[in-house]
Each structure stands twice: as C-alpha cells, then as structure tokens.
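Q: Now give one record:
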Amino acid sequence: MTKTPKETALENRAHDGAKLFSPSTERNRDAIRDVFLKTMPQKGRILEIGGGTGEHAVHLARALPDAEWRTGDPDEKARASIAAWIADAGLSNLSGPHAIDVTQADWGVEDRAPFAGIVSINMIHIAPFAAAKGLFAGAGRLLAPGGKLFLYGPFSRKGAHTAPSNEAFDASLKARDPRWGVRDLERDILPLAQENGLSLDAVVEMPANNFSVVFTKD
C-alpha cells in the first residue's frame, strides 16, 4: 500500500488500487458500531451519507445482517473506494455507491423511502453548514416515523468546546475553509432537528472527544 495526499478527510490515507484505508476509521469503527447497535434500528433500510472510504459501511453492515445498508459519497475517489470495499466484502445487505449531495432538494433515493435510519459519520464539520441543513431536511423528508438519524463527530456544547484539542481542531478547520468548523450541538444542530420534525434521542460521549448523537423522527 502507498500513501495518498491529505484531502477533505484531513488525514493521510493508504490505498491499494481504488480502495482507501482510513486510520481514523480503524481507530473508531468498533466504538461506533457498539453505540449504533444500542441506539439504531437493526432492520430495514439504512442510508449512509458521506460514506468516505466505505470501511464504516462494511463494518456496520456486517454487524446488521437484517438491515439493507446503502452507502455513497459525492466525491468520485471516495465512491471508487466504496465500490472496491463493497466488492471485496461480498455482503448481500450492502449496496452503493450513491452520489448524494445533501444540499440538493432531490437526493435520488426518494423511491426507496421511507428509511429506518440515516447515518452521517464525520461529515458536517468538514462541509459548509448548508450540508448540515440539507442533511436534516432530507432526514425529515425520508425517515419513517420513529426512524433515526445517527451523527458521529466532534461537537461543541452550549457555546463551549469540550476539550482544548477540539478548539484547536475547529481553528484549523476554519483556517482551511471558513465555511467548515465544529458545530455546536445545542445552538447549531438542535434547531435544525426541530425545524425538520426530529427529536434528540441520545448523546453518547465517545473516545477522542467525539460524540454519537441520535435523533428520532416524530
């Protein structure tokens, strides 16, 4: 395997052909899986947004044999990696990649709705805030009543960072692109949930000052 330059993911990723390997995914995938299994639907259609390398999709779909997991990413290199991971995994309940841009009103999967769950891991802080708005609008449209939206990543709380490292990370994100940044759960995210008919269900502290946050469609 060789190294590929830093891109949106903010990390050096090894690759083997089209297949990308994320160091952060290797570190956090088990912790995310464990929380997911406790808080999210175990059956039905699950839609992953911003699937990155595809490693999380494989790991979670393998743990949820009764769910239909569909993943994808708007980035072409990410989709190539996702396709390679899906092909190698050989899981009958895992499909993709889609190319959903959450800022668009039509995601192209409306014919598959309603979904039992929508998942977004490490996306909204490395995208313009319009992506967070679009994600919640889509969840409001496409989730079944009682369906759940799962977010993972760093968040500030009530206007304050939860750790000095997150404050430094926020500054580095904004220096790279002023439209990016660590979002505040109470001030930025909860209003989006309320606007789109979702209620906060769970906030779980995760390693490295991250959070898993789960919302339920009213």
Summary: The radius of gyration is 16 Å. The chain has one domain: 24-217. Residues 23-39 form the longest helix (17 residues).
